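Notebook entry, structure prediction.
Reason for the run: the old model in the group folder had no record of what sequence produced it. Starting over properly, with the input documented here first.
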Amino acid sequence: MTEAFRHIKIDIYPLIKDVKEFLIDWPDHRMDKLIDICYLNPDLLKYFEKRNISIRSNFILWYWHINPPKHHLPLKWPHTDGDWSSKDVIVKKRLSGINWSFLPGSRVEWYSPEGATPVFKYRSEHDFSTVWVDCDKVTDIWDDAGPVLFNPQIPHNIKGDPGVDRRLSMTLRFNESYESLRDKLND
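New structure, fully documented this time:
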């Protein structure tokens, strides 16, 4: 079975300012925002450069509704990021990520795709994913702050403890596979 995530040893705060400052003027009902990597800690960028890791020009800040408001359809089934069946892997599906979580009480659960059916959901040019119908066997859980190397091509979903409505986290995106990053980050 493919690895869902791996804790990695990066003792560098990822941003140039506190993550909550990015929430000021957050658009209503927005769940994610692309932010230029100029807002990443320069020491973190040097860390990747030293390891010859190709980072993309922006990262995603998530302020994910765990129990979405009525105008959002909840993700009943787990999803993979992008078009799982796409041959254009660099653009159409996210190959790997490094994630941090900034609020306690939420987690990512990964599921076995065995017996599940992948269904592509296109919402816009930049908002699409593959949901996995009849996918309910949890195989792994990430529930701490991280950072973790995150495999977005294994079905996963966001869950929260009672009373936790949102998950605040970030994803650094790379032009490399999960396996390539794992090997380059293996200290």
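Summary: Residues 42-50 form the longest helix (9 residues).
The old model has been moved to the deprecated folder.
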